[in-house]
Amino acid sequence: MTDFFKGIPQIKYEGADSTNEFAFKHYNPDEIIMGKRMEEHLRFAVAYWHSFAYEGGDPFGGRTFDRPWYDSGMEGAKMKADVAFEMFDILQAPFFCFHDLDVRPEGATFAENKKNLEAIVDIFAEKVESHKTQLLWGTANLFTERRFMSGAATNPDPDVFAYSAATIKSCMDATIKLGGANYVLWGGREGYETLLNTDLGKEADQAAKMLEMVVDYKHKMGWYGAILIEPKPQEPSKHQYDFDVATVYGFLKRYGLENEVKMNIEQGHAILAGHSFEHELALAGSLGLLGSIDMNRNDYQSGWDTDQFPNNVPEMALAYYEVLKAGGFTTGGTNFDARVRRQSLDAEDLILAHVGGMDCCARGLKAAAAMLEDGKLEAARDARYADWDKPVNKAMLESGDLTSIQERVLADNINPEPRSGRQERLENLVNSYL
């Protein structure tokens, strides 16, 4: 045991009337929602990088946090693992997520990195045996070190491609050893800063080859977890190839991988792409590619990905409505890809940020379930498209051509008038569940 969280109690559900800030007001893991426990619906995960590796920096300033495991090599990494599982126990978190660089110190060579990662994974393996918290997903950090400044899979240097492939294998091995449910690929440097030195076709082929090798290795190892791609339009690169759900789907179709890969969708990245979170979730759900979500929010007055904890219940309700419509999570879950503000220095701040986020998501889930079970929103949607169920209109889609359709319009004197989309009524309906 460490003393980092000394004096902080395990967080338990006390209900909406509780005045105890160290208690859940809305997140009741055992509450049954649509036939499943709330915990099983939400599948919360703590992000190792933001909670334990983030130092409090922003684009204009460096470290503000003072954590005892910083700058301490492997001993610090071991202490960080102890602190992490103490926090997981306090929150009763069912899952966590990590990059390799979050959990191990950077070595002088790939061999040293591999050795360091394997040593920490051995510690994790003991901890997941004796703790409730399991691994939701693992991933490789292929963006922080300067070797990745021009990308990883898409790098013009074949040696960087090889180093990246070797790193991914190590991280997949770690994920599989720990019983992880997913493996995530995020291409923060897979893109370009200028087209003047970029070969788009070559870089796309390289990215596809890397993804094909990841899929092949999954099958070779007999692993039943999901491979997930996380879309983001830019930052740190000027333009990233995994721009949004639609772009990733086009890439997967182009290379015949649409049946092998799903998506990990983040609220903040959806906003940077010019979409809403529910749009990206709805599109992924309609394509059968919704895998998992990173839950956070951006500050709409800042121009970068601020990764704040969620606090907007209406947004969460619409998000979980799309998750539930898509059938809910299977291997995926709700990962808090969020960090406390650089002025929030205390251990209590880290715990309470998660408590608030978990309560917010719980409220959103309950509202979403109520909307779906009531059926009024779906009934209104179905009514809007009801005429497409008439035989003549079904035939138009199945076997119509321009000539026969024009003849029908003339014969039946079709002269349609606009129909109301009833947006405000539906917005009022949604608000009635909140």
Task: Describe the protein in words.
Mg(2+) 2 binds at residues 266, 269, 305, 307. This is Xylose isomerase. Its main location: cytoplasm. Its EC number is 5.3.1.5. With 434 residues, the chain is α/β, with parallel strands linked by helices. The protein folds into 2 domains: 12-374, Alpha-Beta Barrel (TIM Barrel); 391-432, no CATH class. It contains 16 helices and 14 strands. The strands form 4 sheets. An 8-stranded parallel barrel has the order 5-6-7-8-10-12-13-14, surrounded by 5 helices. It has a two-stranded parallel sheet with strand order 1-2. Strand 7, helix 6 and strand 8 (182-185) form a beta-alpha-beta unit. It is globular, with a radius of gyration of 24 Å. It starts with 11 loop residues before the first strand and ends with a helix. The mean pLDDT is 97.
Strand order of the largest sheet: 5-6-7-8-10-12-13-14
How large is the count of helical segments? Answer: 16
Question: In the CATH hierarchy, what is the class of the largest domain?
Answer: Alpha Beta
Mean pLDDT: 97
Topology as a string of helices (H) and strands (E): EEEEHEHHEHHEHEEHEEHEHHEHEHHHHH
The beta-strand count equals: 14
CATH topology of the largest domain: TIM Barrel
Give the N-to-C terminal Cα separation.
Answer: 41 Å
CATH architecture of the largest domain: Alpha-Beta Barrel
Binding site for Mg(2+) 1: 230, 266, 294, 337
Cofactor: Mg(2+)
Subcellular location: Cytoplasm
Active site: 99, 102
